[in-house]
């Protein structure tokens, strides 16, 4: 029972650490992983899917195995406080809700001040689209879309995998998500090499995206609109995970998302999500941030409850098995 309570306690403390402190200012493990993954890419890059698959497996399995060994070592000490500390530290560094909210509100402040050039300069903190081609409305829409997608990627998805597979699961998810951001796009260099990383991120992000969409519908201002947009528009989006999340946020907030955008000089014409909604305004950024925070808190409550229940069930099954064989 102590281990199960320790898991929940560590997740809650890590979540609070992210909300109150934000990302570690120095020595962030995700930044260290990014540097190591970039070095591995330079050494292993080939213009083939097979090379990319080997690269993705190495970059995700390595951190996950390290986390598993560390977790096993801490559990063998029998010290509940040590296990809580490990879970809290990994949760804190894996989550990015505070950074997401801060970056979104900084763009909002620039737009509110009428400083579109500053808003364009700040936008790359949130997404990779070309800011110079966007007006104030386009920037606001990009921020709301990024808040929606990253609520799943930077908060809910990590908590889901923590509930399913503990510290190793959360570590593996964060590694896969970071790797996708690095190589999982359709640039000429990464079209083949990044294919495996992108597909791995799609698989890992699937449960978190659906939970995010459901919680956005439950906690948003317009639950019926969120469900309607999710059901009618999500499948039209090119991303299997961003589609449901962005559609649910669009319907919940009563706004239109999607449309034409530009990434790295490439123009994409994405479907409009929640077409009955109005155009995004600057004030919708704050509304999206508030919804993101509600979704994060609800996902923390849900995943810790599920995680503890699942571990208790496994422990009970093992106990029953031992009792039958004695």
TrEMBL record:
Membrane topology of this protein: Multi-pass membrane protein
Keywords carried by this UniProt record: Cell membrane, Cobalamin biosynthesis, Membrane, Transmembrane, Transmembrane helix
Pfam families membership: CobD_Cbib
Pathway in which this enzyme or protein is active: Cofactor biosynthesis; adenosylcobalamin biosynthesis
Zinc-finger found in the keyword field: no
Localization terms from the record: Cell membrane
Domain of life of the source: Bacteria
Transmembrane segments: 52-70, 295-314
Primary localization class, coarse: membrane
Xref: NCBIfam families: cobal_cbiB, PRK01209.1-4
Function statement: Converts cobyric acid to cobinamide by the addition of aminopropanol on the F carboxylic group.
Family (UniProt): Belongs to the CobD/CbiB family.
Protein's name according to its UniProt entry: Cobalamin biosynthesis protein CobD
